[in-house]
C-alpha cells in the first residue's frame, strides 16, 4: 500500500523559499509523488513511484527554478517537473514490463532476426547454404555499427530514427539509401509485431514516421540514363572483346548480351535455365522478379529477341539439360605459394553468377573499351530497353509487362520517352487544312 504523503507547498519559488532544507513531497497521482530536495543554494526535483510490497523507487529529474530561469530541459518549473515525473513513470513501467517478458527487444536484436530470415531466403533461392543476402552488408555497416543499434525498442523515438538517417554517409546512392531504409523498416516492424504485447501502442507509428520517404524523394527521371542504340551495340561489342582478352570463354559476353537484349534485372537473368531459350520462336523466357508482395500472375515473361542473340546463346545450350542454369562463369581459388613461388589464382569450378557485384570489375573494362563514361552502369541497359520500346510506340502497359514493372512506374520515370512517342503518333494525324491557292476549282454542273 502506498504511503500517505504530507503535502508540501512546492509549486512556486516563493513557497519553496519558506521551506527548511531537506526533502519535501507532494502527491501528483495515486502512486506517484513529486519531490523537492532543498539545499543551501537551491533545490532539485525528484520523482518517486510505488513498485509494490511497500517499496518505492525514486530518481532525480531536474533542477528547480529557484535561482535560475527554467529552460524546460535541465531546469524545470513545478508544472514541468510534474510532467517529467509522469513521463519517467511511464518509461520505467515500460522498462519493467519489457524485462519481465524475457530478453529486452532492441534494435540490434530486430536487425539480427531480420538478417537471419533474409540469409535463409537467399540460401534457399540460390541453393547454397552459405549464401548471404545483399542486405547483410548494408545493415551491418550502417545500422549495427551505429548508436541506434543499442536502443531498446520500447524506448525508440522518431528523433532517434531521423538522427540515424541524417548520419548516413552523403556519398551513398539514393537507391542504396532506399533499400537500407526499407530493410530497416521491415526489421523493426517484424520485431514490433513479435513483442507488441509489451511495447507502447505508438511504436508502429514511430517506425513509420521515422523511416518514411523524405518529402523531396520525387521520382528521378531515367530517360537521360538511357543509351542510344549505337552505344548499346558498342557495349555488347566491347563485352566480346573483354571476354576474349580475359579468357571468359563467352560467359561475360553472353551475360551482357542478355541484359542488353531484354532489359531484365540481373537478379532475373541469373535464374534463367537452358529451357528458357526458345530458339524456334526467337524468344527468351525471363523469370519474374521476386520484388513485391503476393504471387505473380506468371512465373516467366516472354521476350522476343533477334536471331543474333539466339546465335550468341547457342553455345550455352548445346548438349545441356533444360533445367541447367543458362549463364555460367568460372570461379577461382588461391593456391598458396612456396618459398620461391608467389601465391597464384587458378580456376576451381564453373557455376551460376551470384551477385550483381560480380559485374563491377569487368563492366569497368567494358565501358572503357566502348569509349563510354565510367559512370555508365549496367542498369542503363534496362533503361535503354524501356525507352527504346516506348519510342517505337509500344503501349505503356506492354512495355511495363515486358520489363516486369508497373505502368505507373514507367509513366513516372520515363515520361519524356512517352511524350516523344505520343507526339510522333499525333503528328501522323495532322492534315493540311488551309488551301495554298494553287488548286483549280471546277464548279459542279446543275442537274438539268
Automatic annotation (TrEMBL):
InterPro entries: DNA_brk_join_enz (IPR011010), Integrase-like_cat_sf (IPR013762), Integrase_catalytic (IPR002104), Integrase_recombinase_N (IPR010998), Tyrosine_recombinase_XerCD (IPR050090)
Molecular function, one GO term: DNA binding
Assigned keywords, A-Z: DNA integration, DNA recombination, DNA-binding
GO biological process: DNA integration; DNA recombination
Keyword DNA-binding among record annotations: yes
UniProt keyword DNA-binding, yes or no: yes
Residue stretches making up the Tyr recombinase domain: 222-427
Gene3D superfamilies for the chain: 1.10.150.130, Intergrase catalytic core
Origin: domain of life: Bacteria
Protein known as: Tyrosine-type recombinase/integrase
Amino acid at each position: 500500500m502506498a504511503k500517505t504523503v504530507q503535502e508540501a507547498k512546492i509549486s512556486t519559488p516563493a513557497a519553496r523559499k519558506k521551506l527548511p532544507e531537506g526533502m519535501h513531497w507532494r502527491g501528483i497521482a495515486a502512486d506517484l509523488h513529486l519531490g523537492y530536495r532543498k539545499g543551501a543554494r537551491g533545490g532539485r526535483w525528484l520523482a518517486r513511484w510505488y513498485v509494490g510490497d511497500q517499496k518505492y523507487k525514486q530518481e532525480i529529474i531536474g533542477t528547480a527554478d529557484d535561482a535560475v530561469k527554467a529552460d524546460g530541459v535541465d531546469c524545470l518549473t513545478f508544472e514541468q517537473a510534474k510532467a517529467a515525473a509522469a513521463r519517467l513513470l511511464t518509461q520505467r513501467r515500460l522498462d519493467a514490463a519489457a524485462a519481465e517478458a524475457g530478453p529486452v527487444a532492441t534494435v540490434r536484436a530486430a536487425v539480427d532476426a531480420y538478417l537471419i530470415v533474409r540469409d535463409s531466403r537467399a540460401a534457399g533461392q540460390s541453393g547454397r547454404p552459405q549464401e548471404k543476402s545483399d542486405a547483410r552488408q548494408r545493415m551491418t555497416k550502417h545500422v549495427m555499427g551505429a548508436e541506434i543499434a543499442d536502443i531498446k525498442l520500447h524506448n525508440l523515438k522518431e528523433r532517434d530514427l531521423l538522427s540515424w538517417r541524417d548520419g548516413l554517409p552523403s556519398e551513398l546512392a539514393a537507391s542504396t539509401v532506399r533499400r537500407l531504409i526499407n530493410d530497416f523498416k521491415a526489421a523493426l516492424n517484424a520485431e514490433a509485431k513479435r513483442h507488441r504485447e509489451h511495447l507502447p501502442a505508438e511504436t508502429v507509428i514511430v517506425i513509420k514516421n521515422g523511416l518514411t520517404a523524405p518529402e523531396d524523394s520525387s521520382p528521378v527521371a531515367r530517360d537521360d540514363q538511357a543509351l542510344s542504340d549505337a552505344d548499346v551495340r558498342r557495349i555488347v561489342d566491347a563485352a566480346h572483346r573483354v571476354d576474349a582478352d580475359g579468357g571468359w570463354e563467352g560467359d561475360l559476353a553472353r551475360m551482357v548480351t542478355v541484359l542488353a537484349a531484354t532489359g531484365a534485372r540481373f537478379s532475373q537473368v541469373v535464374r534463367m535455365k537452358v529451357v528458357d531459350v526458345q530458339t524456334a520462336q526467337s524468344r527468351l523466357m525471363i523469370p519474374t522478379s521476386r520484388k513485391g508482395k503476393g504471387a505473380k500472375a506468371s512465373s516467366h515473361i516472354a521476350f522476343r529477341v533477334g536471331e543474333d542473340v539466339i546465335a550468341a546463346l547457342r553455345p550455352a545450350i548445346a548438349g545441356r539439360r533444360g533445367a541447367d542454369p543458362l549463364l555460367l562463369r568460372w570461379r577461382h581459388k588461391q593456391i598458396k605459394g612456396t618459398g620461391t613461388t608467389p601465391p597464384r589464382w587458378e580456376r576451381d569450378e564453373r557455376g551460376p553468377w551470384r551477385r550483381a557485384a560480380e559485374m563491377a570489375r569487368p563492366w569497368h573494362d567494358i565501358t572503357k573499351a566502348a569509349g563510354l563514361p565510367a559512370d555508365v552502369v549496367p542498369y542503363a541497359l534496362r533503361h535503354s530497353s524501356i525507352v527504346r520500346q516506348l519510342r517505337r510506340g509500344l503501349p505503356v502497359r506492354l512495355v511495363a509487362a515486358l520489363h516486369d514493372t508497373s505502368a505507373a512506374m514507367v509513366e513516372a520515370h520515363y515520361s519524356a520517352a512517352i511524350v516523344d512517342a505520343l507526339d510522333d503518333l499525333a503528328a501522323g494525324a495532322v492534315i493540311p487544312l488551309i488551301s495554298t491557292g494553287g488548286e483549280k476549282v471546277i464548279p459542279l454542273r446543275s442537274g438539268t
